[in-house]
User: Fold these one by one.
Assistant:
Number 1:
Amino acid sequence: MSIGNIGKSVIIKGELSGSEDLTIEGQVEGKIELNNNVLTIGTNAKIKAQVFAKAVVVLGEVTGNINASEKVDIRDNGSVDGDITSPKVAIAEGAHFRGAIDMNRNGGVPKVEVKSDAKPAAAPVAAGVKV
């Protein structure tokens, strides 16, 4: 497996996607999509983007929402201003976080499936689910 690296002098504006683990030390504005891979936000990085990855490790600054299918790890001196959606979230002492966390575990949540051909009559069934 290869690991990509974006140096601290690099500035990217737009969409960034890939199918390998990536470390960013520079600046990214826009959207980052590494759905099946690990994204590391380096200590020098300044990210203003929506982030989608398997796992995200934050050592630098992120402004924007983070969606990770496995884990988000905000390390010492890491900073996140935005909402996090991930089944596992770790925030180290000394880290900064401002936003909401949705730990979307499927196990404890009642399943309500909505299908594209669902009829309006199905709505009372979903409303009657007790948590």
Number 2:
Amino acid sequence: MAIFDVHAEIGTTPLWGVPFTEANLIRSMQKYGVERCIVSSTIANSCDFRRGNALIARVVKANPALLGCVVVNINYPEQSQQDMHAYLPDDSFAGILLTSGVRGRHVTLAEAEEILNAHRRFVKPVFVHTPNQAALLAANEMAKAFNTLKFVLLSMGGDDWRMATMLADRTLNLVLEISGSFSPDKIKFAVDHIGSHRIVYGSGLPYTDPSSIIGLVEDAEISDVDKRNILEQSAKRLLRT
């Protein structure tokens, strides 16, 4: 079964200070049968979003199996919009990833409103880190305010995956990405409540083990069609590929 990974990063990791390179990512993709992957930069997500975005632009241009994600920093709305206009018209970029510039600190509607207003013209998904309940509620508020955009909840709320699912049940432009908690119950719970067509696979590389996330899907008591949706088809529909 082919896999489409919507959530990976390359670059030097803040946790370990060692590089997870494009070559490392490609080897991982080959190992797990991942045909396409949306990638952002660890540098962009932490200290220098413009340098990180430029790096990703070079990487995706050289490798058609990879799609870029433009990291936009709510503290620099003007520069963020410049990067959006520079990269998003290109089909090799899949959408934007909202960041506060501080790993673990979520983004709010008030902080992101200017950038999201500018992003509406591109009609590409918005990726948001949602490791916990507070981040989920903030992302849900953004999704309700900008209901023509798709918002992908990266990590699916972590241990708060039930809340993520129930929010998505009511806010129809939310999409759940399944990295985060390794609870064996969350995949079937989400499929039962919102359907597999609004659930996508993300590895969370280099911070998580892809085999664990893939195993959650493969071991879930759902149909083969649902598994195929989560691992590949839902992402293709999200990106209209």
Number 3:
Amino acid sequence: MSNIFTPVIHPRIDLRRKEKPVKVADLMRGGNTPITRFNTWLAVKVTSGVGTMWCAYAFAALALVSLPAAITSGNPVVLVSWISQTFLQLVLLSIIIVGQNVLATASDKRAEATYEDADAVLHTALQIQDHLAAQDAEIEKIMSRLKAT
């Protein structure tokens, strides 16, 4: 009776033991060429610097330097241009990067939790297989006793 099912271990199980979940930071480290690695390194450094609220405050202060000139010009186009091209672009750029960093961190935590959940489910499924195999062995013993009588 124990020959009715033979579990086949999926190859992904061995890979899961060797791999951890992919995180945003992992994707930023790779690169095949020195230029690609340099570009990635530079992009991460600039993003890390610009993507802070302190940088957003500094950009806001920098933008405010030209506000009096925009107001005294009396031209509404100049004022709208200052708001959209100077203030919003400078300040919102940093704030958006900060938000993206927060979202990436949350995404990494969700990926880690999903990985751990999948690992727990896999472990439980393997225990179920062992349990079923033990039950098969006991049923086999019962069947052989019944046949003997």
Number 4:
Amino acid sequence: MSNLAGVKVMVIDDSNTIRRSAEIFLGQAGCEVILAEDGFDALAKISDHQPDLIFVDVMMPRLDGYQTCSLIKKNPRYKSTPVVMLSSKDGLFDRARGRMVGSDEYLTKPFTKDSLLAAVGAHVQSAA
């Protein structure tokens, strides 16, 4: 596992539990973690923090993960920022829909520390 120290990761999820565990796992690996409760919250924080990678939950109120990902990817500034979808559903349709809005990977919840860090490692390595 590569050293992820200093990598900025944004986690967008309406579940406090998911945000918390992601924050702990990523924090232990040395990542700087930015938490957002939903798409609007994330869009408000993204320009202040310039994350290297974004995890976004598919099922969220107001603005869902697909809409959030689409908005992020439409912005020229974040077009190349990797976005990983988080979902408790692991269906082909959901994966395809995630790809359509420009997501880079699809991770099924509940995720493990290893799967979360592997996703960060894979995308941040390729971005560097």
